[in-house]
Design brief:
Elements lengths: L8 H14 L6 H10 L3 H7 L9 H12 L4 H5 L1 E4 L2 E4 L12 H11 L6 E5 L5 H9 L4 E6 L2 H13 L5 E4 L11 E6 L14 H6 L8 H4 L1 H9 L4 E10 L5 H11 L4 E6 L5 E7 L1
Parallel strand pairs: 3-4, 3-6, 4-5, 6-7
Antiparallel strand pairs: 1-2, 7-9, 8-9
Helix pairs in contact: 1-2, 2-4, 6-7, 11-12
């Protein structure tokens, strides 16, 4: 790779930024990468800027820099990603958690208020972030989570065990092998990207994140159609279904679920970028 930079931490970070720029990557990645690498705050960084960089496992960070120079996502290089203030293990078998996905949890909290669901199902759990965070919010609930990828489930199990959170994980294509009972809350962040949207995506997502968890047929709607077919047998008569969607899919997903649940109250909610991101189905 490039040189093993020396000098103070401030000098090394400046050299690292120049190295990324030379390699055609965003030099601004260096500071955020270093903060995540060390799990530091900005105050921590300021307090250590004049110390020798070799004090801080700098050769290990240089290996991260090499990956960044090739366009690899930082989270895969570190093997972890932060979601709602908690570090989750990730691998190439899992999507990198996005903060906007936390909107599903916020909607669940708002809906249930002082009450709480006793049975929760997370379909397409990936790293397990939704199942685990919902288990934290609703500690009395029994939480079930499924994924079609055994490799993703291995990561989800590690995350739950690391946080001492109990979740029952199942290898399943949508609801095929999950316990058949009535759930008060069902959440899902399924694959929803259409193949014709490739030009809208960052190359690092296309090149590194698992396509099984990204893309779906039928203009990205195939998994929603399958969910709409299967969920009537699993949702409680006063339950709530929460789905993450692509920003152009709100009306189409709402229509799919209105056909499956004619009496349901269906609403579309935006993320913090003011884009349609969630569909809520109140049975």
């Amino acid at each position: 790779m490039g040189p093993l930079f020396s000098g103070s931490l401030a000098e090394a970070l400046a050299n690292a930024s120049a190295f990324l720029q030379q390699e055609g990557q965003n030099p601004g990645l260096v500071q955020s990468a270093w903060l995540d690498f060390k799990d530091w705050t900005l105050n921590d960084l300021v307090n250590h800027l004049q110390e020798p960089c070799q004090t801080f496992a700098w050769p290990d960070f240089c290996r991260v820099l090499e990956g960044l120079s090739q366009g690899q996502p930082l989270q895969y290089l570190l093997g972890r990603a932060n979601f709602r203030g908690t570090w989750y293990q990730v691998s190439l078998a899992t999507l990198i958690p996005r903060e906007e996905t936390g909107g599903l949890i916020d909607l669940a909290i708002k809906f249930f208020g002082d009450s709480a669901p006793t049975q929760i199902l997370d379909i397409g759990t990936g790293t397990g972030i939704l199942a685990i965070e919902l288990a934290k919010v609703f500690p009395q609930a029994q939480v079930v989570a499924s994924d079609i990828s055994e490799e993703a489930l291995k990561i989800a199990r590690v995350n739950a065990e690391t946080m001492a959170i109990h979740v029952d994980f199942f290898l399943s294509d949508v609801c095929k092998t999950v316990p058949k009972k009535k759930y008060q809350l069902i959440v899902s962040n399924p694959p929803y990207i259409a193949l014709d949207e490739l030009d809208l995506m960052d190359p690092s997502v296309i090149n590194y994140e698992p396509h099984l968890a990204l893309f779906a047929d039928q203009e990205g709607l195939a998994i929603y159609q399958k969910l709409a077919q299967e969920l009537p047998a699993f949702i409680d008569k006063q339950g709530l279904i929460l789905l993450e969607i692509g920003f152009r899919q709100g009306q189409k997903v709402a229509a799919i679920f209105k056909e499956a649940f004619p009496q349901a109250e269906i609403t579309i909610h935006k993320d913090f970028y003011d884009k349609d991101r969630f569909v809520q189905i109140k049975i």
